[in-house]
Write a structure and sequence with these properties.
alpha+beta, Aminopeptidase, about 30% helix, binds coenzyme A
């Protein structure tokens, strides 16, 4: 169900940003050939390539296009420099709803798994959200998705509940996870 959400300024943010994630400082700066930028329409083909490789019930082109028109939505894309062009290797979709950021989608290209790209996208997206006033982050993840759960644990996400038979393709349960963002910013490394 769509929820009322807070408009997110599309302009005026400067990257990289100012916050420090203890133990995760600026992962997106450590990967020197990685750039994280806001999604534009022309990025959707590259995003769909990854979406179709990664998910059993992928988002459609229209679903990504719609995100461009939703005030509270931000989609950030990770691009890697190759000799001839910049290749899209991952993306994250966030919604800001009052003091909460909800992570709707996150994926990285299978050829680049375990290269720190999701860590970079998540630290970048959370940092962006904190600067806009987010205090907690929430998401749903398939119970069987241990790689993603392990990633979220690194950002202090904890299981808060279960949505039984949430995914319509196989009726798998969703774990609802939540992270107090002040904890991520302030904790000791
Ligand atoms: C989950 C996913 C986004 C991780 O992306 P990634 O770019 O490989 O992640 P990173 O390289 O930043 O890894 C960060 C952490 O995630 C966890 N992780 C990632 N892949 C893992 C795997 N195959 N097994 C166990 N843990 C894994 C680890 O904790 C890892 O930290 P470590 O390398 O220090 O052990 C990626 O596997 C993916 O796109 N999966 C398909 C889509 C998906 O499930 N999205 C999440 C929906 S909720």
């Amino acid at each position: 169900m769509k929820q009322p959400c807070s408009p997110v300024s599309k302009k005026g943010m400067s990257y990289p940003m100012d916050l420090t994630f203890q133990g995760l400082e600026k992962d997106y700066l450590r990967i020197t050939d990685l750039e994280i930028v806001e999604m534009e329409g022309e990025d959707i083909d590259g995003i769909l390539d990854i979406e179709n490789l990664c998910f059993r019930s992928p988002w459609t082109r229209d679903a990504f296009k719609q995100e461009l028109d939703i005030d509270c939505s931000k989609v950030f894309v990770a691009k890697k420099s190759t000799p001839h062009k910049k290749k899209i290797v991952g993306y994250i979709c966030l919604w800001m709803v009052t003091n909460e950021v909800h992570i709707l989608n996150l994926a990285t290209h299978p050829n680049f798994h375990r290269h720190g790209i999701a860590t970079s996208l998540l630290s970048f997206g959370l940092e962006f959200s904190i600067l806009l006033g987010a205090e907690i982050a929430t998401l749903e993840v398939r119970k069987s998705n241990l790689p993603a759960i392990s990633l979220y644990n690194k950002f202090a996400f904890e299981a808060m509940g279960v949505r039984r038979r949430y995914y319509s393709d196989n009726y798998e349960d969703a774990i609802i996870m939540c992270s107090k963002l002040s904890y991520i910013v302030n904790r000791e490394s």
